[in-house]
Amino acid sequence: MAVYAVSDLHGQYDTFIRGLDKINFGDDDELYMIGDAIDRGPDSIRILQYIKDHDNMDLLIGNHEFMMLNSVDPNGRDKCTGYDSDLWLYYNGGNKTFREYSKLKAETRKSILLWLNRRYVIKTVTVGDKRFCLTHSFYKSEFENKMFFEMDYDDIWSLVWPSVYRDGDTWRPFIYTEYDYTFITGHVPVQRVRFEMYGDDTKSNVLQIVEDRNLIDIDGGCAGGSDSWLNNGALFLRLDDMQVFTVPLTGIDHSDCS
User: Fold this and answer.
1) The dihedral of CA 242, 140, 151, 209: what is its sign?
2) Residue 92 burial (CB < 10 Å; 0-12/13-18/19+)?
3) Which residues are within 8 A (CB) of 158 and not within 5 positions of it... i.e. 6 or more apart?
4) Could you report the per-residue pLDDT of 225-256, keeping only the tens digit for each?
5) What is the DSSP letter of 255?
């Protein structure tokens, strides 16, 4: 049995399946998808349904699931007029997801929404003697192991939107060092983080995790599509031994670039 984490697939279902094949994912293994399974890419709903249908997989809420849940009709009707609907549909790639979602039967839409409402925003897990905290972006100890429906809008927003890596924040992964966890996050692509760290450097092209102290970013940049220069793709991290498995969108692996 092994435990894996992956983040920010953004509708790239084929990349997801290739990743499961690469890690030889089996019935005794576990997978945590750390938010942003949806939007921008072509097959968001397929990813949601695949995770939902597998008892050994789970999804945490990212800012894109957050926007979806605050945009679509909560009763499963084919409507999208909620508080975040403009932000989701027109500025964050939600239009593709909503088109897929609209084609589903109403009972299927309701089932997906019920399932999403019961997903964690922050999840703590223990693998062997290691303690991990999984969160799409930010962390506040009072919200550990709380589900979406248990939390207020502003509290969830404060966890899935802000980042230590961007939005005017300084580089400050050190804020996590006071906690006895290894933090696994996504939200900001590793290529962007490396660019901020190194500037215009070939290291920003590497499809590989970014690790600083006890904070690890595993967003491989699927939101950017198959831009070969950025080497976008998925990063599957095995928590048992911290081995990384790279799955480029282009099929060309540049993960060993230096």
Assistant:
1) negative
2) buried
3) 138, 140
4) 887 667 899 999 999 999 999 999 976 555 54
5) T
pTM above 0.85, yes or no: yes
* Sheet of 57-59, strands arranged across: 57-59, 30-33, 3-6, 233-238, 243-248
Nearest to residue 235, comparing CAs of 255, 218, 211? 218
CA-atom Rg of the chain in angstroms? 17
Structural domains present in the chain? 3-248 (3.60.21.10)
The token pair that represents 32 in the structure block = 């945590």
Pairing of strands 130-135, 182-185: parallel
End-to-end CA distance of the chain: 32
Length of the chain measured in residues: 258
